[in-house]
Amino acid sequence: MLPQTTLDNIAHHITTDVDGCLGASIVDRDTGFAFSATPAGTNIDINVAAAFYAQAVNAKEKTLRALGGTRDLDDMVVTFEDEMHIITAIDANKFVFAVFHPDVDPIAQLHATIAYHSATSLGTIPNIFRARRAAAEHFAA
Q1: Which of 13, 20, 54, 116 could form a disulfide with 104 if both were Cys (CB 3.0 to 4.6 A apart)?
Q2: What is the pTM of this model?
């Protein structure tokens, strides 16, 4: 498990470094518990939303398995008139839940922030982001 200071660091930097972010949390998929939450400008309760999105993430994974899928969930995007919610998997047990202004497209910035701050705190990049980087480098060549 990532240390609490790393989780706090990632959530803080998502909120401060990613354009249009209104709040972010690092969430346990099994319990819906937000290990770290940094609300910055949204009226929703980040912790409550995180708990319910954990149920949605698990339901989506269950649906994928029932349909014979073998891939893991990378991102879920839910759009509203005045907000965009993005769920990004960190590993098999944790995900980032972040709220954004609806007029930004922050997914690449969100991935880069998570990967960078995980690497600087742990000395390594989470597997999911290593795989994405390798794929991007492969197709860029």
Answers
A1: 20
A2: 0.75
